[in-house]
Amino acid sequence: MASTLPNPPEGLCFHCLQPLPAHDEIKVRVDNRERQVCCYGCQAVAQTIDEQNLLHFYQFRDTSNPLQIPLLPEELQQLEAYDQEELQEQFIQRSDSGEKSTSLSVDGMTCAACAWLIEKQLQGLAGVSNAQVNATTERVSIQWQPDKVKLSTILQQIAGLGYRALPFQAATQEQDFKRRRRYFVRRIGIAGIATMQVMMIAVALYFGVVSELDQSMRQFFWWISLLFATPVLLYSAQPFYLSALRSIQARQLNMDVPVTLALLSAYGASVYATFSNQGEVYFESVSMFTFLLLVGRYLELLAKQKAIATAANLIKLLPATAQRETASGKLEAVAVHKLTQGDVVQVLPGQTLPADGKLLTDQAEVNESMLTGESVPVQHQYGDTVFAGTLNQSQPIRIGVEATQQSTVMAKIAALQDQALATKPRLAERAEKLANQFVKQLLILAALTFFVWSFIDPSEAFWVTLAVLVATCPCALALAAPTAVTGVVHRLNKQGVLLRNTDAIEALRDCRTLIVDKTGTLTSGQFSIATTHQLSQNYTAEAIATLAGSLERHSEHPLATPFKNLTSETASLEAVKVALGNGIEALWHHGQSQCKVRIGSPRYIAEWHPDALNHSPANVLLATADELLASYQVTDTLRDDVPATLSKLRQQGFKVIMLTGDSQANAQRVANQLDIQQVQAECLPADKLAFVKQQQRQGPVLMIGDGINDGPVLAQADVSMTFGHAADLARQAADIVAMRNDFAALTRLLDSTAKSRRILKQNIIWALVYNIGIIPIAVIGLVTPYIAAIGMSVSSLLVLANSLRLYRGSSGTDTPATK
């Protein structure tokens, strides 16, 4: 086939129209022809333009002034803009290893086959560490190494597959949703109007209303039906054709393949009958089938939007500007994305905090309902951490900025939500594979049906085959899993529970062993020093208090909190080492002398002083290498909702085990209050990990913890839960995060996931019963194409309606969790 692209004058580069070098001959293949270019840069750009199917750049550019022509198509220029660091700050997250990650929004993705194709393409790209694609939310969660691949290259790879991908911006999500809704509404409107007109004619023809008319009048009605059905086929049904083509490209057939075959076959046969005046026409089936399918897709879109709007709306709460203090103490209005760590901003009452940071005002009342769901304002003191997106309620406050944009807690919550929606529970994956296998078998069945009916009644063979294609299309089966999963994610969001790993939905069914940390999990985490005993007379009480407070300021452990406010004085320390789960060691300069000191658990101090284990019920000891300095009993109170929650769990058959690093005495005291029979105390992180592995030999384990030292066991457990206030490591390792920091979230989680499992199973069973049950009826010719269209659509709508039950009553509780 001859190329339609204009050739440059002899001796000029095909791409930039500059003179070709005298010696080097560099060529590139564009539009199936070899073209000569002046350098390797032009070669790379021309090859990209050809790969991205942007040949209109060469076809329509003005070549009258070679010095002024653009060197890149506008589409590629726009994508390369996303490589700018300043722009990336608004949507990119960076890991400690230097990798970047973001969420991309993809236009045109309609099914699992689309997701599979994009995922395989990206995973094969050098420099891409991970790519997860979710057809339900039309998002791509991607991690890449910026030194090996650029973001624009990733976007170009997706564009080369026929999809348009851009960094996901929560602020524009509503606009994107409205655009997609209009996309469906226009097509539904045309299909609906045409269906009404064609059905009136079909009723008149099929039920003998115009039986007395001659053949020419009958054919006239066929032509009118053709007139109305054609825009339905050419315009309204476009989404199904595009999806079918992409699934064939991915070599993974989806349900739109039989849909497309049915539509084109019915329309083609009806057109032939209209022109030849022989046979039957089914324009009403084409129109009605398209209309009902589009309505189902539109309702599915609405369900998706409900599920993903909760987390996305968090980011939209962030203000666009902030009042930053200058060096002279004046205020200046700046864009939030220009704030940096160390800036000081002022926030007036009624305004939203623009960034995470430390409170620099004595006290503040902050409404954190957008993070936790609790509307009661939280009282904060000087030095407390406050979060972007929360609402200042009482007085003007000053905040020292520590994190902005994608580094804020709110942005991380939204990222966790994207991660949850990007994963699929195993049951959903099995349903998706079953639907794909069903499509292949359906096509084989349709071919066999046509072959058999060609012998039985050749005039009916085509229409029976068409009815089989339509009636047995696994639309309901394809909708069964994603609608239920998005429904439970939405439901849990409303209940203040963030589901990070959707595999937990199914895994929770088999968990009947609950292992709980004590500190900050069963107890409130609001610690105080109940008793203090000075054990050395060589130092003053003030010196010991200063040393204890200075050491504990290097710790993030909850037990360290009450020590940090013992005194405002600071001890001279160096070579500070934190022993995770044990304590802190440092070199203390005191007067003219120096010595090693430790503060931590009795077992940690016993490495220097074996008699440290005899100071029960003290759970924190301070010592030098030569002597014990002081012992402390640090206590906190039980959470109010723990006793009732544990009682409900026992009724459901859970065995409760306490696993803690605290002393045996303190652990046993709490266990006695909560009637916990099995206690493992004084455990290091390695001990906890070994114990959880031991319990897993007897069955799946549900683990709840919130500390840094709980990270390994949370990752090891079959299902794990933590709290919104937990350490970053715990939040990253856990499958579920209770954003309201309440222990009762566990019962809401169990109830909601149990309901979602029931609905998911109901969806799959109903879809299979319908599809398998309709096969023999359709194959023997008892179902006409238009009845098949109604049956298939009603089946899909029933599945969707069943999944929407998860959206009702999402702020309360349901029936007790069951298997």
TrEMBL record:
It is found in: Cell membrane. PROSITE patterns: ATPASE_E1_E2, HMA_2. InterPro entries: ATPase-cat-bd (IPR021993), ATPase_P-typ_cyto_dom_N (IPR023299), ATPase_P-typ_P_site (IPR018303), ATPase_P-typ_TM_dom_sf (IPR023298), ATPase_P-typ_transduc_dom_A_sf (IPR008250), ATPase_P-type_domA (IPR059000), HAD-like_sf (IPR036412), HAD_sf (IPR023214). It is a multi-pass membrane protein. GO terms for molecular function: ATP binding; ATP hydrolysis activity; copper ion binding; P-type divalent copper transporter activity. Keywords: ATP-binding, Cell membrane, Hydrolase, Ion transport, Magnesium, Membrane, Metal-binding, Nucleotide-binding, Phosphoprotein, Translocase, Transmembrane, Transmembrane helix, Transport. The keyword Transmembrane applies. GO terms for biological process: copper ion homeostasis. It holds the Pfam family E1-E2_ATPase. One of its GO terms (cellular component) is plasma membrane. The chain crosses the membrane at residues 188-208, 220-241, 438-456, 462-485, 764-780. Residues 100-166 form the HMA domain. The keyword Cell membrane applies. Its EC number is 3.6.3.54. Its main location: membrane. Belongs to the cation transport ATPase (P-type) (TC 3.A.3) family. Type IB subfamily. PANTHER family: ATP7, ISOFORM B, CATION-TRANSPORTING P-TYPE ATPASE-RELATED. This is Putative copper-importing P-type ATPase A. It comes from Pseudidiomarina piscicola. The lineage of its organism: Bacteria, Pseudomonadati, Pseudomonadota, Gammaproteobacteria, Alteromonadales. The gene is copA_2.
